[in-house]
Fold these 2 entries.
Entry 1:
Amino acid sequence: EKGGYDHFMLKEIYEQPKSIRDTLRGRLLPEQGLIKMGGVFEYREKIVNAERIIIIGCGTSWHAGLVAEYLFEDLARIPVEVEYASEFRYRNPVITEKDVVIAISQSGETADTLAAIKLAKEKGATIFGICNVVGSSIARETHAGAYTHAGPEIGVASTKAFTAQVAVLALMALRIAHDRGVLKQSYYHQLLTELDSIPEKIEKMLESDAQARHISELYKDAQNFLYLGRGFNFPVALEGALKLKEISYIHAEGYPAAEMKHGPIALIDENMPVVVIAPKSGQYEKIVSNIQEVKARNGKVIAVVSNGDSEIARMADHVIEIEETAEVFSPLLTTIPLQLLSYHIAVMRGCNVDQPRNLAKSVTVE
Ligand code: M6R
């Protein structure tokens, strides 16, 4: 059932070209310039006219929500708040009938997310769900929604569910942006074609994991890791750190790269590996200077960069290249090497990657 792979997690990492393709199938129609999402668009008016969107989730699903914040604000120009379901539900949040809530959950059974949905529903909000498990409690509790078609995810560390969530959220953001008339037509069409090419690009990136293995070998005994990213790739830094800590038990923290100087920079010395997510983007020069700050303190830089980047290659200790893509979709690619890195490190440390200690696949307790 592991399809020849040593672990479910590795199988699920390698399934991503397919799971994203399955998630986009029938929804993304680049030749016709269309995005079709039946389940969501029963409530189309609500979301297109929303004055704000609140996104709730836990763990990795919350990270997908953070990516969506950048997508919805940048493309659709709708203000977004992303909340941990557990904090949202207990703080007497201000919610009205005008609000649109998007709940994200792979399992569809996370207790805190379910309770947050019930609360928002009582206050009259319209709730969309993005779940992977068909017929799950969250899928049933929401007004409308879209499934991620990632297929069953067995590994406790979420991998293919995350990229499928981001793919669905990208579809929603593009469709809403289009309906609101806030995107240039040519840019919209360019993005549809680009999104369609993502599975192929991931396939290419998965052809070899030699670089991730090599880096894992060198840093598997580190006690701490720092992950830095900016903009669309700030949530990827959080996700990379979560993946490493949950399966390898190495302490890891993700930060927006610009926050480094407000505290975490004090941690940097020659024993600190710093993973910097630095594909070509609007903030490229800024991240280059963040890398210089790490190097000036003898930190070890592992940089995830766009194909052929020579500037960062000269500064970093190691680089992992990703395929070229639009900045808005870059999280779908930059996530992949971080999954592989945490997987290999955990295996090399002898950890049970599919069933890490103290964790369950779905957290049905509050
Ligand atoms: O099933 P859900 O997406 O609601 O689960 C949320 C979190 O429990 C989950 O993402 C958790 O953080 C994973 N172990 C992360 O890999």
Note: Residues 58-61, 105-107, 110, 113, 156-158, 242, 246, 359, 362-363 surround 5-amino-5-deoxy-1-O-phosphono-D-mannitol (CB under 6 Å).
Entry 2:
Amino acid sequence: LSLFDIVALRREFPILNQSVNGKTLAFLDSAASSQKPRRVIDCLEEYYRRYNANVHRGIYRLSEEATFAFERARGKVARFINARSQREIVFVRNTTEAINLVARSWGDANLRAGDRILLSIMEHHSNLVPWQMLAQRTGAQLEFLPIDGEGRLALDHLDAQLAGVRLVAITQQSNVLGTINPVAEIARRAHACGALVLVDGAQSVPHMPVDVQALDIDFLAFSGHKMCAPTGIGVLWGRRAILEQMPPFLGGGSMIRVVGLHESTYADVPARFEAGTPAIAEAIALGEAVDFLQEIGMDRISAHERELLGYALERLSEVEGLRVYGPTTTEMRGGAVSFTLDGVHPHDVAAVLDSEGIAVRAGHHCAQPLHAHYDIPATTRASFYLYNIPEEVDRLVAALHKARTLFG
Ligand code: PMP
């Protein structure tokens, strides 16, 4: 993105134009949740002002309009990830719910004692805990891909580790290390062993082009709120043939065909997995966010972030006592940069940055096993998105020098 583009783009995000603690806000926490452009906020408001009505039920104008917009959003999301059909898009609340849906529905129906699920040690808790719960219910076992010194998956023993594995569930981009994992290669080798592949796309779908057919995976989970859309809406994409074999997750209205007092039959996918009134406005606004991202271009967004990342890695290396976790080059790496600063607690680092108007996150970032691997309780994380600028990296580095002086 050129300087001209980025100045115009930043104006689209009303929240960025404010002071925090007397300084212009530098928002470096998009890995947790992104900011929203004006058109997404307007889209939500327009729904409630002009055509708010429940979907799929009413035989009246407003309900038809809401249903049309809701289903059109499903189509936009399908095209965004190159799904074969919009019937493969299940609207859920977030990545966490998408993964729980697969664990409950596919997992309970298909796994037996002794079956194996292959994860990695860099997984977010939402791609770990549902599998632990499934393992406890079924007697299945969890296996873990290790990482190397650069924070990349170590795949040397992948084929051996795949023995007896029914499902590989892996993140495409680590929310702590920034590592981008070779999902297509893992999927190819997993399929050769008869395993299905679920990809946690929470940190990849917002930041790079993701094509489910090119990756040749089976499930993809992601959240709207990390890609310029509202909270409360997320997506499970699944191969249609697999989704059609899966039993319902939640029971209730909208997911049925015929209901008797003792038994019911279920709707086709995706309705089978969308019990109850969905997040209508949020889904429509997700469609708007997808349009927004596609008009800019996912290639350009990822190139912009890589440029910022390269600059940040270079500038951060100037800060004495600072250690970055994860790859130290921009190769196969996204813009989440977690670090520790010698002698300063990660939360104190974040507090000093906040006093300078810089928003970052400190803690375990829902990846406790990964932090245990490094034998640290917490890191501070700065993360970039399409609206960030090099000047914010400069401010981050200056504030880190200040933190060292204050605590050093
Ligand atoms: N996986 C990864 C890699 C994430 O970064 C996150 C969000 N921090 C999640 C899953 C969970 O997303 P959500 O809280 O929206 O369900």
Note: The longest strand covers residues 165-171.
